[in-house]
Specification:
Layout lengths: L8 H31 L4 H35 L7 H30 L4 H49 L1
Helix pairs in contact: 1-2, 2-3, 3-4
Length: about 170
Amino acid sequence: MIDESQGSFIHHAKLFLFFCFLILIDTFILYRFYIFHLEQPESHSKLIIILYAFEFFLLFTKALLPFLKYLINLLEIATFSHFESKLTIFSVLDFVFTSMKLIIQLGLLEFIRRKLGLPLHLVAETIETIFGLINTLKNFINSCILTYRLNRYFLVFKKKKKKKKKKID
């Protein structure tokens, strides 16, 4: 399976540079919003800039997660090995980034609640993120339980197989 996913070096370099470019652009835009926020007096346009900054911070986290997953896969391809715990690593990354997204959305919700009142569209998005976090946590727990059960089953199977060999000998 690793040989099938090899691809060319140029393909991986282009994809890596594309991810870096996306993250760099998001970082630059966040920095510009931050500088603009410090320079502007309290105004309506400043509020809109802060809203855009929250959205670009969400985009930054959304671009960073696939980048990290790609780096893990690239490391696996480069070393010609198979990571046994890759699914666990991906589950933990999903949980961490979903938690980050929830924290960002709760911060945005609190900021807007203080400035403008309670916007219902943000409440729905935050609730959706909470359910996503719960589903990610359930998937992680289920994968851990499945791994434990499979390891226990194969351990019992190996012991039975060894007992049969001893009886034959």
